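So, can you check these C-alpha cells?
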Amino acid sequence: MKKLVSLVLAVCLAIGMMATMSGCFGNKLVGKWEADIDMRDYMLKELGSNEEINIAKYLKLDSFNIPMIVEFGKDGKYNVNIDEKKFAKEIDKFKGALKDALYGIFKDMLKVDSNDAVDVAIKAQGMSMEDLMKSFDSEVNLDSLFDKVKSKGKYEYDAKDGELSFEESGSDDEETWTIKLKGDKFKVTDYESDDDDEAEMFKNLLPITFEKQ
C-alpha cells in the first residue's frame, strides 16, 4: 500500500511539474514586444517602378521605420499597435527627404542649379513647393496610416514548430509568422497570409526582430 501511495504521489508531482513547465513555456510570449520595421528598401523599390519619374533616384533616405508594438495576453488575445510619436517623426523625416527629391527632379527638368531658381520657375506656373508639400499632407493621413497597422484578435503559438498564428477580429484573413524565440527577442523568419499582397510585402521586410519591453 505504501508503494502504491508513493507511486500516486510521484505521478501527481510529475503531472504538477509538467503543468507548471507547460505554463512557463506557453507564457514566454506574454507581454509587450517592439520592433522598428525598416520600409526604406521596399518604398524605394515601389517608387522606382514609376516609369514617368523615378523618385527613388532622387530620394536620399537612410531609413523609414514603422515602430510596431505587439502585445500578447495570457488569455490568448493579441493587440498590434504603433508608436504614434515615433512614426510621426519618421513621416517628418520622409517629408524632408521628399522635398529635397522634388527640388532635384525640378532642377533636372528645368536645367537649373539652385532651389531658388526652381521656386521662381514653379511660381510662374502658379505653384510653390509649399503647395506641393501640403498636397502630400492631404494625401497622407496619419490617422488612416495608424489604423491600417493596428489590429487585435486571437493568437496561438506552437513552440515546437515556431509558428505564431493570428486570427484578426472582424476578419476572415489569417496570418502565420515563423519565429525564433530566444530570451527577450524573437525573430520573424517567414510569413504567410490569406492576403497575397500583404504576404508579398511582409516577406520583403524579413527578417524582423522584436524585443521584449
